[in-house]
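thread: overnight batch results

M.L. [08:02]
morning all. the overnight job finished for the chain we discussed friday. pasting input first so we're all looking at the same thing
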Amino acid sequence: MAEKATPLMPHATAAWLVDNSSLGFDQIADFCGLHILEVQAMADDMTSSKYTGRDPVRAGELTLEEIERGQADADYKLKIQKGPEQVRRTKGPRYTPVSKRQDKPDGIAWLLRNHPEISDAQVCKLIGTTRNTINAIRERSHWNITEIQPKDPVTLGLCSQRELDAVVAKAAKKAGIEEQGIDEEKRGVDRAALIEELRAERAEEKRLAEEALREGEEGEAAEGSEAPRTEELTAENLFKR
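M.L. [08:03]
and the structure it wrote out:
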């Protein structure tokens, strides 16, 4: 499935929609490819940096009619328009603002430590780095390795949570297809063994209960046969006396 298209500047676009429309936070988050809490924070002025709004209508990414449809129907999902060539993103390394480029090694170190299943190519695309940098951090030969502290790239602003989750899910699925099949097969065997064990336990409990019931009935029958004999012996003794 192709990745859903998002505005060129999602945070700035979300900020404009929050200030200039009555769209729901979930609608804005879905259109911009952000988490709903990010949009909520923008509306509450709780973000660490104030985004300058970017008009998606002027950028050719959204129409006024589309915004009006979304405002009239809270469940409506906005559809992005095909923008002009100069505003559409092109394939290639992810652009990272200069102020955040120094945080890339920390984000790479976090990914290598917490998600080793992600390939170098995926890390390059997610953060916008090179294989040489990744290898240098992995082998601890990076020129600034002593200062690198693993940090979540989402927290650092190097990627969105949605993008990270998608990459992690894709890598995990690719790495665990065979293991998952083995685990499911093993779980099936374990489940069958457990059911068989429970059946055996219930059968044993039933057998013991039946034996106890038979012993009880035999005991009662024996007591019943002893009583007349005792009375007979007593009468015989009295006769002899």
